[in-house]
Amino acid sequence: MPPREEFPTKGLEGAPSNDIGWHFGTLVPNARGSIVCKLCGKVVKGGITRLKEHIAHKTGNVAPCPNVTGVIRESMMNVLKESNTKKIDKKRRKDEFLSQLIEEEDEHEGFIDEVSAIRQATRESIQSQHEWHRREEFRRSTGGWDNIYEEGRSSHGSAREHNRERTSKSILVATEVGQGVKLPTPYEVSDVYLESEYQRVHDWVNVLKTHWKELGATLMCDGWTNSLNQMHIINFLVYCSKGTIFWKSVDVSSVRSRYAEFYYRLLDSVVEEIGENYIVQIVTDNEAAMKAAGKKLMLKRQHLYWTSCAAHCLDLCLEDIGKKPSVAKVLDEAKKVTCFIYNHIWTVDLMKKNLKNQNGESKSQGLLMKPKKLFWEKIFGKKPMTS
Fold first, then answer.
1. Any idea which UniProt keywords this protein has (predicted)?
2. What is the pLDDT of residues 331-340, one digit of tens each?
3. CATH 3.30.420.60 in the chain, residues?
């Protein structure tokens, strides 16, 4: 047998591994599993094992190399035989161990079941490791936890275009990954992916905190009440020029008297929790208790400003406008028309057929804009400005 020193495992700079087969081949760029033989120039598919079979003239899977010397060929054949012997010996020892466990099953049934389950789970985990990496690659390549809000896309048109791009990208990645990629298991979803997504969000928040420290951030507070069980939830969000994050929700259903002092203590605790040096503004609705709490908080924290919610202000203004007799009459008539259309299937179908543009997309937005224009003309006597 030729000495193994003919194939040193050191000095393979740039090779994927220290396998001795890389002395005789190089990877083909952008072709997974394809290797070019340095001796004859043949492209061998199937990885480094196929290349070694090609050098050793092992029949059955690949054509032999015509330029290899007899010494190298025999040495490579011995390497393959030695590797195969190790695999057989490993399998034999594994089977012996499993047989020994089965013989003792009656005496230690509970213990054996547990050991077998662990071993089975370990084997399945090892076998699916490659598949898991492929799923992870597919998940990351198709967007992962990213969404249209992070890209500032809020209109229906841009959202549809974004969905088309993601669908096309998903198809391309799925084609590249190939068949056999299964859905993630419940364990992967609850333990692996959840922890991964949590870490990503955590890292993202840490990046935003650097901007909070430089430019300051706004704490936004919004309440919501469930009309069925009267559950009252207060949501807190933190906004800066780089993005908005949801901080937490507080269930205050058990608090019967939500006066200014309660809101003051709640807002103060959230500011303290986030970091006083980050928050420079608080935005709440225009409820009297909230206004009083915000002003009291400004007295305690001199650098902080309370601001009423502009959207809530506009909502209150529109409610007052809607109470005017002339406006209320128009709104009542519009509600009747809307209820009539959507309460009859044939009218909805007729509306969809007659409200399509050249691309086949619905122009229902235009239908909603016409009453809006008439509304402003009736109130202010002129058409609204359009962009």
1. Metal-binding, Zinc, Zinc-finger
2. 889 889 888 8
3. 215-314
